[in-house]
Write a structure and sequence with these properties.
The chain is of the alpha/beta class. The protein is built from nine helices and 16 strands. Strand 7 (265-266) and strand 8 form a beta hairpin. The protein starts with 41 loop residues before the first strand and ends with a helix.
Length: 455
């Protein structure tokens, strides 16, 4: 059986070789480096590939350049090229080669049922990630296949290293030779690789083409049976922009039925369809953490929630997802399979937790979401720069790489404090209160102080 696809394994065909002896083993069975001094120099090319599979949110993080270690794909390309030049240091019987060409192309793998220009084709198992393809060339007396295979492998491993903090379940798979040219054996090409016409025409660009997501927008609701906000198994990561379009992945809408209090029920667009006889309770006060991309918001929010919870507060949270489409469910789970099959409104209920997500035609209003938070003491909101909430502006480095703007510019009359480092603090106006971005306890103290003023 093929463990990845749960299908019967193909029967092995004829062994693909042009000799029946191992050149790296002598007549006594001892390993050796092959003597190539009598061989004729020819131009040689080898193309190899490998894939690294990951959670859709991890793929989205890489494509949006949100990884904390920096540009994942650029680093992986460089690592692959460097590895090709050091192959003889890693593989014992490889000859050192004066490589004349080394190129590494990396493409995102499309979700199941989706075809996108500039993306690698979707896999049969529907998993996403990145496909790495390495092309190496040399004019010499021995082949360059191992250099191409090493380049593809190390590029995949570099992606793993750059992303392992958020996704240790990534898998490096399908490392294989696709094509080799030159030498006594001539041309060899893997069966089914018809699109690989020539080594000089590998049609991958230096970077992935990121397609614009669809027009549908989304939100999410998940809670325990008592109604308290929770970061359960369907929301084990903060919600970020998904790599697939709005119709490619499961969607979420914050209108799950309130198990505890029979509050307003909503249709798929978030419109009320039935009113409770009981008056609606006031929602908990909300405090926002705002800042541009890579400002450190999520890390600070995570720490503050942990500290406030340890101090006895019941904390809820909302993450603003500024783009269309994201994947919240766990690939392979029953509810995820429902969504992948086409369900537009998915619910999941257990003894102590529920979750619901659905397509929406427009962004769900923040105030409507906050109406559901009647069972917590404070709602920590990540994002919503323009919502007018009491807020902490988070600025790790001051200038956002994408917007070319300073997070300090987000300080307004609703700002409680600017959470930043010493350099940014010196740039802030004297009237702006600052707090060390790395001192989450001090930030939590200011949250408690703000709550006293809002009471």
């Amino acid at each position: 059986m093929d463990a990845r696809n749960n299908t019967p394994a193909a029967a092995p065909g004829a062994r693909d070789a042009y000799r029946d002896t191992l050149t790296h083993v002598d007549e006594r069975g001892d390993v050796r480096m092959v003597d190539v001094s009598e061989k004729v120099e020819t131009k040689r090319i080898a193309i190899a590939e490998g894939s690294i599979l990951m959670h859709p949110e991890t793929q989205a993080m890489v494509l949006e350049d949100r990884a904390k270690k920096g540009d994942v794909l650029a680093c992986a390309r460089v690592a692959g090229i460097m590895a090709s030049k050091r192959t003889s240091d890693l593989i014992p019987m490889c000859h050192p080669l004066m490589i004349t060409k080394s190129k590494v192309d990396i493409l995102p793998i499309a979700p199941a049922g989706v075809a996108r220009e500039g993306w690698a084709p979707a896999r049969e198992d529907g998993r996403v990630g990145f496909r790495v393809r390495a092309t190496c060339g040399v004019t010499g007396v021995t082949g360059i296949e191992m250099e191409a295979l090493t380049a593809a492998s190390v590029a995949c491993l570099t992606i793993y290293d750059m992303c392992k903090a958020v996704d240790r379940g990534m898998e490096v798979v399908d490392v294989r030779l696709l094509r080799k040219e030159g030498g006594r054996s001539g041309l060899w090409e893997r069966g089914g690789q018809g699109a690989l016409e020539a080594s000089e025409s590998v049609a991958a660009a230096d970077g992935p083409v990121v397609q614009t997501a669809g027009t549908s927008t989304s939100g999410v609701a998940y809670a325990d049976a008592a109604g308290a906000s929770s970061s359960g198994p369907l929301a084990s990561t903060h919600m970020q922009d998904g790599a697939a379009s709005a119709d490619d992945v499961a969607r979420a809408v914050p209108c799950a039925p309130d198990v505890a209090s029979a509050s307003v029920a909503c249709d798929i667009a978030g419109r009320p369809v039935a009113a409770s006889a009981a008056p609606a309770a006031a929602h908990a006060p909300a405090i926002a953490f705002v800042g541009y991309q890579n400002s450190g918001k999520t890390t600070l929010v995570e720490k503050v929630i942990n500290i406030l919870t340890a101090r006895g507060l019941r904390v809820g949270s909302i993450k603003h997802h500024g783009h269309a489409g994201f994947d919240i469910d766990v690939p392979g789970k029953d509810s995820w399979r429902h969504a992948q099959a086409g369900s537009r409104h998915v619910g999941l209920i257990s003894a102590d937790r529920y979750a619901e997500y659905a397509d929406t035609s427009e962004e769900f209003p923040l105030e409507r979401m906050l109406e559901r938070y009647t069972d917590v003491d404070v709602v920590i909101v990540e994002g919503y720069k323009t919502a007018g909430l009491p807020n902490f502006v988070v600025a790790r480095s001051g200038v956002d790489r994408r917007h070319r703007a300073s997070s300090v510019d987000l300080v307004d009359e609703h700002t409680i404090a600017l959470a930043c480092n010493d350099v940014v603090a010196r740039q802030a106006a004297d009237s702006v209160r600052t707090v060390d971005i790395n001192d989450a306890r001090a930030v939590a103290d200011l949250v408690r102080e703000a709550l006293s003023g809002l009471a």
